[in-house]
Here is the input.
Amino acid sequence: MDLDNLKSLWNKEDVSETPEISTERQKEIHLPLEKIRKNMRNEFWSTIILLPIVLIAIWFFNIPFRFRLYIEVLVASMTLVTVFFFSKFFKLYREINNPTLGTYDSLKDLFHQFELNKQYYLSFYLSFVPFFVCEIIIITESIPYSHQYTDGLLAVKFIISILFGLFALYFLGNWWFQHFYGKYIDKIKKLVEDLK
Here is the structure.
């Protein structure tokens, strides 16, 4: 008899359903998600347009062939790195469009995806550090300089250029992420915290 009682209690309690988020809240969450998707699309297409323009523009400058070759190899390598990271971003892009974002658990999973993609984004900018250093080396080696500069002075200018460029790259990357993605992620996070 106890077994029958347990079976009836078990059937009454449906634990497979996850609490649904109201339609009004889903609409509030949908707006920042759509902004993120729009920014991701714009970033993707601007990169797709910019890379060939850079490769073509290199041919219009009157620069030595060796210098042009080095720059093209660097841009091609940067393109491979960009393709890798955009493949990761595309996963998030598809996930944002997922129609099952109506549950609290699915939103928690989405936040996990946001955190992963934030790390990917920072890694993306950090991966450009070696390219930046190589470009500075190529420019330094390709530009003729007068003999009034000592090797020590050239080394100091080289190090200052690299440090300035790295700090600029770091701050630009953080600003870019916060401006185009971070503020919308924060809005969604606040809306989800209000659901608790």
About this structure: The helical segments are 2-12, 23-58, 65-96, 104-127, 129-142, 151-195. Confidence is low (pLDDT under 50) at residues 13-18. DSSP finds six helices and no strands in the chain.
